[in-house]
Design goal:
alpha/beta; D-Maltodextrin-Binding Protein, domain 2; 10-stranded mixed β-sheet; 8 helices; 37% helix; 25% strand; globular; disordered N terminus
Length: 238
């Protein structure tokens, strides 16, 4: 079956479209406003539209983040996971091994959320060594920050999701947390627990990074063919 899929996608890439629509399976995560718990959302619409240009249908399953990543990397039934931030550490075409990155199909503005009465401030990464920074377990944050965390230069407080991370900084468990600005805005507007503490919090003026959003395809010949097909039709839409 995987050989057949590779052949179908390869033919689609060579001629610019697939003669008959085929289906591939992608994992994703409940991460509003980008992807919702039922798999809908602007990121899903974009990914689905790009593959539809190639005559390929996609089947989506929403899973907890770490499981979504694991299945996309290790289970032959699943060909990729989205939305993912780019990182050299996991890019199989750089120094990583886990996956093959598509071109960016969107952006995610990421910064530090802190209490308004906190003295947290930063102008360079070296400043971050003075603080406890809240991050979500398994998330890519930003390459240099993640390297500093890995070698113990920045102390971290781990959360299982963005909501828990927000509540921790509000409770002074961390000095600041790493979070997407649009995610915080959505949770503030749609989750009572976050709305109750949002007035005590603010983003630091200096953005950590504006991430591109990618599909992270399985590191295999099938994954590479699917990635190349996705990129080809993404470029045609732009």
């Amino acid at each position: 079956m995987r050989t057949l899929l590779t052949l179908v996608l390869s033919v689609g890439l060579a001629v610019g479209s697939a003669a008959t629509a085929k289906s591939i399976k992608l994992t994703t995560v409940d991460w509003p406003p980008y992807v919702f718990s039922d798999g809908s959302g602007p990121n899903t619409e974009t990914v689905r539209n790009i593959f539809s240009q190639a005559g390929v249908d996609i089947e989506i399953q929403v899973l907890p983040w770490n499981r979504a990543v694991r299945l996309a990397a290790d289970d032959p039934e699943w060909i990729g996971v989205y939305p993912e931030y780019y990182s050299d550490d996991i890019d199989a075409e750089k120094r990583g091994r886990r996956c093959l990155f598509s071109m960016s199909f969107g952006v995610s503005p990421v910064g530090f959320l802190k209490r308004k009465d906190s003295d947290f401030t930063w102008s360079s990464h070296e400043d971050l060594s003075r603080y406890v920074v809240g991050v979500v377990r398994g998330y890519v944050n930003e390459d240099l920050l993640d390297q500093m965390i890995a070698i113990g230069e920045v102390a971290v407080d781990l959360a299982e999701n963005d909501t828990e991370n927000i509540l921790k900084v509000a409770a002074r468990r961390s000095d600041a947390i790493v979070i997407d600005q649009l995610v915080f805005q959505y949770l503030t507007e749609n989750l009572d627990a976050v709305a109750e503490v949002a007035g005590e919090l603010e983003f630091h003026d200096k953005l950590l990074i504006e991430h591109g959003l990618h599909v992270c395809f399985e590191n295999s010949a099938t994954g590479r063919t699917a990635r190349d097909l996705f990129d080809k039709h993404l470029m045609e839409l732009n």
